[in-house]
Specification:
The protein is of the alpha+beta class and 138 residues long. The chain has a single domain (9-108, 115-134), classed as HIT family, subunit A, CATH 3.30.428.10. Helix content is 30%, strand content 21%. A 5-stranded antiparallel β-sheet has the order 1-2-3-5-4. Strand 2 (24-29) and strand 3 (36-41) form a beta hairpin. The longest helix is centred in the middle third of the chain and has 22 residues, at 54-75.
Length: 138
């Protein structure tokens, strides 16, 4: 990992910290309508997947697959949306969103469909603790 990793301020403002995996910071999107977790490789200055080393690419894929499998099993979703857009926040980050056929945005993407519905303090604390247990992040 390159020294100097800092989380983009927009990501920090829109999410709740869950913990750190071997490569990625794990964040919960602060929108209670969806189980929505973001992986951010803790590598400074990276905006694209190809900028990671081969080992980091494999580690990101491993962390993403593990996260996706656990989210879908735990939340019993109909579809897992995985995306790394970077149009608003350039820092490389990968969204993992559990979707349901009856969710607020289905079948469209979640971006820009509805304003976020932030977790309340207790709900946020409970969901972060739930994810830490689910992902073995202590």
């Amino acid at each position: 990992m390159r020294l100097g990793f800092e989380l983009d301020p927009r990501l920090a403002a829109d999410t709740l910290p869950v913990g750190d995996g071997p490569l990625c910071r794990v964040l919960l999107m602060n929108d209670q309508r969806y189980p929505w977790v973001i992986l951010v490789p803790r590598v400074a200055g990276v905006t694209e997947l190809y900028q990671l080393t081969s080992a980091q690419q494999r580690q990101l894929l491993d962390e993403s697959m593990r996260l996706g499998e656990r989210l879908m099993a735990h939340f019993a979703g109909h579809k897992l949306n995985v995306a790394a857009l970077g149009n608003v926040v350039a820092q490389l980050h990968v969204h993992h969103i559990v979707r349901y056929r009856d969710d607020a945005a289905w079948p469209a993407p979640v971006w820009g469909r509805h304003p976020p519905q932030p977790y309340g303090a207790e709900g946020a604390q409970a969901r972060v603790a739930e994810l830490r247990r689910l992902l073995d992040l202590g």
